[in-house]
Amino acid sequence: MDDTTTTITPLGGDVYEIDTRMAGYSGITAGYLILGDRPCLVEPGTSGSAPVVEAALRELGVGADDLATVVVTHIHLDHAGGVGDIARMYPRAEVVVHEKGARHLADPSRLMRSARMVYGDSLDTLFGELKPTDAARIRAVEETGTIDLGGGRRLESHHSPGHAKHHVGLMDSQTGDLYVGDAAGVYIPETADVRPATPPPDFDLDTTLASLGKFRALGPQRLLFAHYGPVTEVEDTLERSAEELRVWVDHVKDARDQGLDLDHAVAMVVERTRDRYAVSRPDVDPEIAAKYEVLSSAESNVAGIMHALDRHA
Fold this sequence. Notes:
Blueprint: E1 8-12, E2 15-19, E3 30-34, E4 40-42, H1 50-59, E5 69-71, H2 77-80, H3 83-89, E6 94-98, H4 99-106, H5 109-119, H6 122-126, E7 138-141, E8 144-150, E9 153-159, E10 168-172, E11 177-181, E12 186-188, E13 193-195, H7 205-218, E14 222-225, E15 229-231, H8 234-257, H9 262-273, H10 286-295, H11 298-312
Helix pairs in contact: 7-8, 8-9, 8-11, 9-11
């Protein structure tokens, strides 16, 4: 498989899932192309994924001047790291992001410094460099916003903080698809597990649960996870997402009350939650669990919850 080999999955309704092959992994981060009068790319993925995404769009008949819009659910590098590259490849595309993230796409220097502190040398392998996007091409949305997909079809953005303060969910008026980003956690299609995604510094339990309630109230027909793929069991999945968040927060509270440091807290939480996930069973390929640990590690989740508990204390 070369660097730009594409995996495209038609999902119906002129929606195509693109495996962005983050850091060379398959089935870890998805972008989505909505084809129509005004083609729209949701979640371009990392900078390293940009050639893969460009090859997929070419295969789907979308040329350099054809892409109308690029939308990100939030500015974490696994979702938005490729925005600058994609903006250069598609010079007519408008870039849509929540207002709290817009300045970081125009000037990524502060975001990249923070990411470098967290990831060190592995940053380049995992994500690459987020390049600046001309501020004139960025449209910031607030509590709600609308993206014109052409033919009367639209994508409606809904501010959904909790995972990140600059997070939005995106609802397709025609299909009822809801692009959930990371607000509902990580879905593992191989085992149908739902795991939390609670990294520092923005995670907040009550805010996240409120966003999940907002998603439920929208009445989506299908959830489209960036990690990873479509889910039609909407109610059950959103409920499971909320339940897992509560379980992890309760266990981290226990660890904090016991005065455990981060390493010991992570070990305790992993041990207590292992049986909740089919991906942990001995008959499941351990590589599946390993690739999701790269993406959304137990250490990152526990650190984010610890940070939130300290903030409230």
